[in-house]
Amino acid sequence: MNPDKITIVVLDRNPDDLAAISDLLLEGGFRVLRASSVAQVERFAAQQSVNLVVKGFEADKADLVGLMGKVRTISKDTEFILCGRGGTISAAVDAIHQGACDYLSKPVDAVALHESVRRALERQSLVAEDPRLRLSLKRHNDPDVFVGTSGRMREIAATISEVAATEVPVLVSGESGTGKELVARAVHDRSRRAQGPFVAINCAGLPDTLMETELFGHVRGAFTGAVNDRPGAFRLAEGGTLFLDEIGDLSAKGQGDLLRVLEDGEYRPVGSPRTVHANVRIVAATNRDLAAWSNLGRFRSDLLYRLNIVEFQLPPLRERREDIPALAQSFNLHFSARHLRKPKRFSGAFMERLARHPWPGNIRQLRNLIERLVVTVREHEIGEQYAPLPPPDAGNDSGEEPLLSVRRGMTLAQVEDALIRATLERVTPRRDQAARLLGISRRALHYKLKTLGEVP
To answer: pTM score, two decimals?
Structure first.
């Protein structure tokens, strides 16, 4: 959720309470409008989309249900949170029965208020009658990878809007961590299938023995242990989008089975005599050069032609450095709202360090860094001491420990061990991503860690 895209009207006739509640919401990054009368709320609702009204009230005021009725005549999907002092519980229960979302006692606690807002927006995303509002709230659940001024990303965003309305398969390529799944979700959210499910499958984790069941499901008795019918990914994604991540790692058999579905529009659950119509849109992603793999015989060329009717090639973060400030702020607002923290302020020196960093983990690495800082740093301002360490070949005049230190007399095996440890400890703790960055398989990394005593 990007709180700056959420509009909240605070209505309270007590000026001190009005200021206090408004300030708490502003600290969460929300767009806040202050009102001291029902008429003002009605005007705001008529002029713009209002997600939420936070209403302060007293027990002797009988305008609660009336207010909700008036506002929802104009903005039918607006949610309400009520705030009152002692003696108002029965009135609050009455109002909640009439459709208000929550009740909070004054003085309002910041954490309780932000949690109540989160629940109200989740409820709105589920029950809103306006599909555009539901779609808008769904998009706010993830940080925006399209922010910034990069021409390549603006071009991709514009092409997504055009392609999403069609049913053609889409291939998203790029280095690990560049936001391929977020692009796939953007295609889904902007398509006619947006109200349907979005199901993601990691093809690298599908051995031949499980691939057919995971993709196509099985019927009871299909094999030993199949005591019930089980739907596969194609069934779970029916009416929506099936996202096939790491498609380049799909086995040869899996490639053939997927090609048949794309050509025939049908699949057969394991053990079933009947075929099932595949009512899904396919979006695939890869960090490999599938054309080169096809030339080497590792990926079927006919499947590649089926998948890359439209291809989005995502640039690594080092090629869109101008977007780093906007991305960092987007992550800052997103994770501040998620973890009920005040948004941080980034110093100029910190942003300069971010702009110079090579970002081998791309947007994912930046996202993880900002989330960690939002959660762990107590200061309001993030200084340069919290920036990632510079690469070992960039010069190190700051006195900080380099990412990797090679000493005279070290053997090649010792250097390799040090590089593996540094990658896992200082770049990414995820072993699958570390293996890719190191240029080895996950199995090889597991073996090397076992020899180092890192794996039991």
So the answer is: 0.60
CA distance 69 to 368: 43
Residues 130 and 245 in one domain: no
Which of 263, 166, 271 lies closest to 216, judged by CA? Answer: 271
150-164 pLDDT per residue, tens: 888 889 988 998 999
456 found inside a domain: no
Q: How would you classify residue 70: left for phi > 0, otherwise alpha for psi between -120 and 50, otherwise beta?
A: alpha
Position 83 in a domain? yes
Tally of structural domains, the chain: 3
The maximal CA–CA distance of the chain, rounded, in angstroms, is 83
In a domain, 144, yes or no: no
Residues 6+ away with beta carbon under 8 Å from 311: 170, 171, 172, 173
Model confidence over 367-376: pLDDT tens digits? 999 999 998 9
Which structural domain range is residue 404 located in?
Answer: 319-451
- On the question of pLDDT at 173 being above 60, the answer is yes
Q: Side chain identity at 176, as an amino acid letter?
A: S
Least confident residue range of 45-54, 120-129, 319-328: 120-129
